[in-house]
Here is the input.
Amino acid sequence: MYWEKDIETIDRRKLEELQLSRLKDTLAHAQRSYYYGKIFQEKGINADSIRSLSDVQKIPFTTKDDLRENWPYGFIAVSKDELVRMHSSSGTTGRATVIFHTANDVAVWTNLLARCMFMAGMRKSDVFQNMMTYGLFTGGLGFHYGAEKIGALVIPAGAGNSKRQIQLMRDFATTAVHVIPSYALHLSTVFEELKLDPRKDTSVKIAFLGAEPHTEKMRRKIEEIYGYKAFNSYGLSEMNGPGVAFECPYQDGMHIWEDSFLVEIVDPKTLQPVADGEEGELVMTSLQKKGMPLIRYRTKDLTRIIPGTCACGRTHRRLERFKGRTDDMLILKGVNIFPMQIEKKLMDIEGVGTNFLIILNREGYNDNMTVKVEVSRDYFSGDIKQLEKLRKKIVEELKGELLITPKIELVESDSIPKGDGKAVRVIDNRKD
Ligand code: AMP
Ligand code: ZN
Here is the structure.
């Protein structure tokens, strides 16, 4: 059993009391970090500034830029020898934002994931194949620990290597998987190639889909192809990783674990709270993290709180499937990409002109990225060999930075339309 009934069905009033006391503790503790110590002093804030949950609004937001500017240890609130684990956001090989955990942070995170998986129906008797990248990315180890806590047999398959994934699934009668939705679709084409039908030739009953936005239609398509139930899983490295919000068997929004996270939904322009049930940017305060507590962290993810209670009996509120982001971050195959990363790399390469355009496509079930890059006028001599060398160099540089391999198309200087105003950097043609 991994059903924490008392806390999952806690009375709202009691939940809010618990949040208030944990919020005060978090503030008192966060003060020890370089960053919050400075901010609190400047603003005259301490744990006593908080009398009610809405008093959290007295504290400034924390952003990804703050994390970057105080890299690497500016946010840790314990001595370094208390830390046992580091993770980072997916994507760049450059200075990704890093997150640190104490042993207790890992235990709390593990617990939240066990709660999520149990809620979706996973049990001790299940064979769980984790098809996520292990390593700095949180999706691998996070789920791994949670599944072991439930007592399931864990196959730490890691990402990629589709034929082996299928082989493992069949040889060990996998019953539950964790997979990026775009990869689930891609994998179905490999089943086809092998003349196998996942509905008949595997025993998978449950899938956890996470790490990237996907529509309800895409979820239903995946469920249809595989004949399993797929549950939406949301998280971000700054708040541990997966295990922040997760669907229950009713599949109608994701319960966000409010004993661990204080939720605000704000208008991304005015940064003021929106009315109940309205869409806005999700802002979260960690209520249990000790290694690196974060207060009013702007996720840049757009969602809303679904009004009303859930038929499953859990009292933690539900977030609607995510609509997109307020910044220009793209997610391709679960990897976060900022157009600025591409721009920075391109501008360092001799021969590259002034403009570029990122095009995201879905071919069959494969998502890919093409970058059209203008070649500078003086470099454009028409020498095919020279251009091919440039193209290869760009592929290598971007691959090193983004961890995925883009297709590069070289185009003439000034041939990408500029538009009037902000340059259009991205065209996303991915449809369901
Ligand atoms: P990372 O910090 O690398 O774990 O990336 C976290 C980001 O991935 C989030 O802020 C979201 O933008 C995105 N993400 C993760 N899970 C989901 C999901 N289930 N639906 C939509 N977006 C998601
Ligand atoms: Zn529910």
Observations:
- The chain has a mean pLDDT of 94.
- Residues 12-30 form the longest helix (19 residues).
